[in-house]
Amino acid sequence: MPGKRDWTPWMKKNRAPVLCTLGAVLLCCLQSGASVPDEVPVFTEEPASVVQKLGGSVSLRCSARPALANISWRLNGQELLDGDFGAVLGPNSLYIPSLSNLTLGRYQCVASTGVGALASVLANVTAAKLRDFEPDDHQEIEVDEGNTAVIECHLPESQPKAQVRYSVKQEWLETSKGNYLIMPSGNLQIANATQEDEGPYKCAAYNPVTQEVKTSISADRLRIRRSTSEAARIIYPPASRSIMATKGQRLVLECVASGIPTPQVTWAKDGQDLRYVNNTRFLLSNLLIDAVGESDSGTYACQADNGILASASAMVLYNVQVSEPPQVTVELQQVYGGTVRFTCQARGKPAPSVTWLHNARPLSPSPRHRLTSRMLRVSNVGLQDEGLYQCMAENGVGSSQASARLIIASAVVPPRGKPPSIFLSPDKVLREQPPVRPGPGGAMLPLDCSELPGQVLPAEAPIILSQPRTGKADYYELTWRPRHERGVPVLEYMIKYRKVGDPLAEWTSSSISGSLHKLTLAKLQPDSLYEVEMAAKNCAGLGQPAMMTFRTGKGRRGKIDPPKTPAVPSPSLSPPEAPDKPTVSAATETSAYVTWIPRGNRGFPIQSFRVEYKKVKKAGEDWVTAVENIPPSRLSVEITGLEKGTSYKFRVVAVNVIGSSPPSAPSKAYAVVVGRTPERPVDGPYITYNEAINETSIILKWTYTPVNNTPIYGFYIYYRPTDSDNDSDYKKDVVEGDKYWHSITNLQPETAYDIKMQSFNEKGESEFGNVVILETKARPNQPVPSEIPDYSPGTPKDGVPRPGDLPYFIVVIVLGAFIFIIVAFIPFCLWRTWAKQKQTSDMCFPAVPSPVPSCQYTMVPLQGLALVGRCPLDGHMTGPHGVYPVNGECGMNGKPHHLPGRQQEEADCDMECDTLLPQTVPN
């Protein structure tokens, strides 16, 4: 064939280069193919425990590196194949279409490569259930009026834990409402109980998985007592208790007292007063600890006293023990000859049980294997002992595992009597594979820095890039970037968030891989303020947290409003309002992040933003545009090219189709540091507790962790009314020294305040910490609008305008206008009546025989109250309660006040009407 004749000479001529090329390609393929099986498998996601109802579907996830690692599954220690019990096995998942008794149990996935096999932590798949309420006697609960009452609910056994509902006045309560407070224990606390709260109360249990609801058999009846004096007594708990709390979770210790006068409840831990401890808060008389730690174990005493009688019965004790999930480290050592030893240090509370595995198979004691909870000794080591060894620990709170690899150096069996050569690791020094634990995302995270040179510090707080406001009503996109990794990678990010202002809001926690920089916070409530804390974790541990607050959008519920007619440009429209004063944070040695919040757009959407800056120390320096045409969806930008050792100020301009807004207020001076740590504080304090003491005072508690051991002199506290948009409205309190609580006084009653804090020293102030919103209490006896003194608008008695006074001023002005109109209308009404009667008399027509002639008029309703005016001729007739009389004057009890001389005028009117009546003429 011609093609063959052409190919053969070319092949002969170029045989050597072709063979070399093919050989190189084949060698590369073999090397790459051989390198994958030699990789140690590492889990990137492990299965998590699941509670599901029988018949429901279950999905378990498991993945590992390298991507070619083989994933298999076990159920109760036995290998599970595709199709067994209806299970469907995917590349990185296990799916059970219909849960049955056969598929309940403990699941485990195994990742295998040529090196060996690793077993994941165990995941329990259990069936959801809800038992019936136990028979219980009807109880009569008595409490002194004005005190807190407690209705106990003994929830039945449930998997998962049942949610409590209460029947209150023919209405089922699922969450706290008004003075009804549903505690995490399931108890109902009724604050400031009155006679209106008397009656029967019944509780129900709801299983969120099976969606079953079961109601208690009996109902408790609450009775309110009225007594002049009663010694303080604790009505809940009835006796001292022991509680086991899990580390990192929220702890609520309930203590409710009753007595006349109302008792004062105090808490102490191991004899120390808890009122000024940073990590504690109080809800009514209950004690709250947001995240318990090892130091929170101990004896807590709740004591009630109202000065009537000092009695030992007015004290109750809680014995709190904090449990911890296990943490595991493994060390591999060559002892002598052909013997190796593995040591396992498993910490946790209660003490965890330990299981040893070799290539994901449990080990049992044998002549060659001696094992305890702390040590594994392998004698007469041979090639069959190569692979991965795991120490797996469980203690009921959680499970964890760590592993080490054993490598036999000899490729062949050594001569008889000569032990094989043993490598402790691929790099000859693997004393231990970095101890690992599964996070919520399933990633296995190293926890030790012993293999890294020099001193390794915890990771710095990440820089949060997300906007503080979002238009989404039920979720929020949280984005960030690491600040400085210092050569040590971030292993994971610990993130928690909760709703601000809800005293029972639980922290929702997440843990994601250090390679990710985005997380969606889901299931949020519309138009709500949330606080976020996040910290980066490297092998040295958890670093300083970064904190922020954000507000969700209002969303749309119910019927959808019809589309509005688009606005037509008019000469009255103007450019947008100036954005808020920007904040500046460090990015790199020559750049900084500028963040801002926009204000109103005055009718047209904002199209872009522009950031300007100028140098501080140069007099007469003009503002220079740093970045322009920033999309409206971005409220943060990195400004690059800054000069080291120079201070800058930044401002922001918003742009729409009408034009540019006025520039925002300039930011604080930002100094570009030259190769050294800033001497001013970096992070602000974090407000952990806030409460309105009365109508004019607020108490704050906070924590502060210095960065780089920077000393501080104290703290600045800034506060202003929430409805104010002017930064100049902020007032500042200074707290010097290491005091971590402060009381803000001279506030306005029933007014919400924004509160934020900074730390400071001689070099300047830190960035602001978290922002809290708190409302002061209302006055005990607030006057109705008609009793408000006649102050002119804008000039209240204390000389400081209050936002809460504006509605009262409007009501006073409107009522005054109505009174003026009514008074002016009275003479006109009387004149019209007289004129009609006179006209009738002049024309010789009989007047209408009416016992009570009157002139009536109806006025426009004001705020839902219909004002009906009447002019009765009978001076003894009064309008109904709540109806304004003709003269427009109303007393405190709702009865009309007549004008002077009114009765005489009405009498004259009666006489005149009588004279106008014609004489009776017979037919």
Automatic annotation (TrEMBL):
Chain residue ranges for the region called Disordered: 552-585
Main location: membrane
GO biological process, one term: cell-cell adhesion
Ranges that cross the membrane: 806-831
Signal peptide: 1-35
Assigned keywords, A-Z: Cell membrane, Disulfide bond, Glycoprotein, Immunoglobulin domain, Membrane, Repeat, Signal, Transmembrane, Transmembrane helix
Subcellular location: Cell membrane
Database matches in InterPro entries: FN3_dom, FN3_sf, Ig-like_dom, Ig-like_dom_sf, Ig-like_fold, Ig_I-set, Ig_sub, Ig_sub2
Biased composition (Pro residues): 563-577
Membrane-related topology note: Single-pass membrane protein
SUPFAM superfamilies given in the database record: Fibronectin type III, Immunoglobulin
Domain Fibronectin type-III, residue spans: 461-556, 578-680, 681-779
Residues in Ig-like domain copies: 41-126, 135-218, 237-323, 326-407
The protein's name in its UniProt record: BOC cell adhesion associated, oncogene regulated
